[in-house]
Amino acid sequence: MPRPSHASRHASRRGLLALLSLLVAATALALGPAAPSGAGTPPTGARPAWWEPVARPAPDSAVGVTGEPFGGTDAQGRVRGFVDAHNHIMSNEAFGGRLICGKPFSERGVADALEDCPEHYPDGSLALFDFITRGGDGRHDPDGWPTFADWPAHDSLTHQQNYYAWIERAWRGGQRVLVNDLVTNGVICSVYFFKDRGCDEMESIRLQARRTYEMQEYVDRMYGGPGKGWFRIVTDSAQAREVVRQGRLAVVLGVETSEPFGCKQVLDVARCDREDIDRGLDELHRLGVRSMFLCHKFDNALCGVRFDSGALGTAVNVGQFLSTGTFWRTEPCTGPQHDNPIGGASAPGAEAKLPPGVTVPAYAEGARCNTRGLTDLGAYAVRGMMRRGMMLEIDHMSVKAAGRALDILESEAYPGVLSSHSWMDAEWTERVYRLGGFIAQYMHGSAQFTAEARRTDALRARYGVGYGYGTDMNGVGGWPAPRGADAPDPVRYPFRTADGGSLVDRQTTGERTWDVNTDGAAHHGLVPDWLEDVRVTGGQDVVDDLLLGAESYLRTWAASQRHEPAANLAAGAPAAASSSEWWDPFAGHGPGKAVDGDTRTRWASEWSDDQWLRVDLGAPRTVERVTLDWEDAYAKAYRVEVSADGRTWRTTWSTASGDGGLDTARFAATQARYVRVHGVERATRWGYSLREVGVHGGGG
């Protein structure tokens, strides 16, 4: 969905509308025989190669790529290929069904699929959402097929960009993994004038999942039957790896919605419970969903969000109020990370939806962080995703929420964390890589994309990982503008794909031919052209890192699926402490409360520094990770110590900047019978208070 700073990504507005070209095909029966895209008619009786359909709809879009798509593995057994980690193929079914105009496929053919919304005729003056996303009055030529005078375009945010043949072109150009995020927003649906269905978010998610499976069947029919097409929905990493090895496109289902499972909050009161979360996660898993966001755009019962900026931010903040009864609340940030600035730009169309007398508040310039982090229900949902081997998307989480989520993942050494489209604070990058997670950058213009890729290149080299991009197509975000026909280093057509095996020419649909130099990234079919633009302007090494993306993404997924929590060696073990709080004899805050497995109990020390809690493991054990779940009274400075005899202690880990919450101390594996948490300096006027202490060896 939308990116934070359109101005920084799109210095120029509309690209030149140019290069009207060859009309694609003569009228024929739908799904009738057709020549392979970009090639001549095969000899009579010859069967097309495996990557060419036996029957393509006619008329239809050309693909413009010739040659066999690469597959297989390298000498190390690694697959190759690009990853689009964030796309919305089916968002035309979201938001009431009339916000994104056009369909990714239609049984009635391309003219039906690539048709504008009825209210956009005759001149786009009723394209109301365009007023916010594009500026001006929304006017445009509504005709899609066959002229495509005004859409799709890099800055036309409410028209279909994921027609199946355009996705096919991206696949033929080297893309091997695509994450289809099922997306919607109930508030946008409810306030938008035009809709042809209800606004229940989970109903929309179910419909989009069904449509994705229908698209798979649609492609399969072109290739001769079930399982024969290039568009393959996958539900586990091994299946995905085999699809990529074959040279086909592995499609992963994700979810990006504001109130998953109905988990909204109204006036800070949750409207869901743990049972709702478990039911929702189970249903999504049955649908084939394997990654998801817990919050998106609006604070909900699970977590606070990372703000939008400018006029769009104001509009989203209005939606936040309409959904929750509260506007975003901010506070000074406590660390180097911060949320996006909200900004004070007006959004009259959205603000008109507020009740009389209610206005969007002004925000202090120095308060950049959302007060809302990860709630207890949100933490429960994170752990529920871990139990199901799902991957957590932390983009759109406030820094407080993302930090807490990473704490939980680190406490269990769980690798399933994704940042798919540059909405995560950059300060989290190494933390994600250290866990084994995967990061993709938003599909910025080639210069900006290259600069950000180089900024994190050393980290990727250190952790041996590849890179990805998130196109966010159909996500109302804006895409790379054209650099111009007179750019000193243009993309020159035709060009070879990254592996050198296929030839890519300009892409034609109907009467319109797109050129990335003069049109920018107008639709998903221009992904290979954009990648060539990255290579030309940024260097082959950037593209090489992207070619490692499929392998890295699948490693993160596989590690999430096979993850088994390491045994907690401290569970129920004898514990001792330097002191225990004495003034509440009914509650009891003795040292055993920190190893009883119940986060509702705690050990609490006396109100002074230099306090410790010791755990006896019963025998020498291999120890390499200690987790500490602090209550409000936490340590600013403390160390983790180990001992063989309980008398001579050795420090294995320490910090002088503790921030409470859930801490994970990692150190080189060592043998110890006793583990001690030694508080040096308190962060509060109270003592030290720990809900739970976990001690772990290898294997998790």
UniProtKB/TrEMBL annotation:
It holds the Pfam family F5_F8_type_C. The keyword Signal applies. Residues 1-30 form the signal peptide. Residues 562-698 form the F5/8 type C domain. InterPro entries: FA58C, Galactose-bd-like_sf, Metal_Hydrolase, TAT_signal. Keywords: Signal. PROSITE patterns: FA58C_3 (PS50022), TAT (PS51318). This is F5/8 type C domain protein.
